[in-house]
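Fold this sequence, please.
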Amino acid sequence: MATLGSLEGFQPVSLQQEGDEQPCETDHLSVEEGDPAKDSVPRSMSRVSSVTESRLYPNPYHWPFVSRKFFVTRPGAIETAMEDLKGRIAETSEETIQGFWLLTEIDHWNNEKERILLLTDRTLLICKYDFIMLSCVQLQRIPLSAIDPICLGKFVFPRMSLDKRQGEGLRIYWGSPAEQSLLSRWNPWSTQVPYATFTEHPVKYTSDKFLGICKLSGFVSKLVPAVQNAHNNSTGSSRRKSLMVLTEPILIETYAGLMSFIGNRNLLGYSLARGSIGF
């Protein structure tokens, strides 16, 4: 029978084969239970942990049974929404659609909301879409010539805030925050906020299709030149010199955050399968 001393030359190896899915975090748990005297294992685990912790919030949903809870991932749901919104735009205007994205909006009270964004040659449209009933609930139109500045950066909160989030995002201004009234600032349901904040949708990594339409960098690469072009073509008092694209922290001014804590943990801002209710 082999003794423990004869096994000292063996090292743990990965059993992952080519073409396999990304490794689960639990695959590394067995390595942690090895010999604590070996320095190579703890160092490798510390690197894995740092990569895991650096992911954008909300965390990607790699598992199929989790991603299927989102109605947007159901077959044909996102395609139906695209055709529906294309028809609405064709009926109300003659604008040309330049892009279509699925992102998460973060309101001024730190609540997450599932949103579809459409970019035309003159307008940015932010749509609240019901993926359960497959219908547009709300459509907000923002002229591209009114957008300035655009901010990219990490989320920051007041020091005394109790509900904070990690990660990075995008904030689009079409008015001055100084002109925002005190009532709208402290009203969680206010629609008179002169900016919108976005981050990546949690279903980004479920498939290549969603990877393309949920990527924040892809949206920014189309938005910035479209806004600059709209500024150059604008006339009169609305004409702006140039678009400012800033890289700075994005402040979300919430303190207690009880509403966002409950809503974001339960994904209340998404069209989600909640399971059976009753007996």
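The two ends are 57 Å apart (CA to CA). The longest strand covers residues 97-106.
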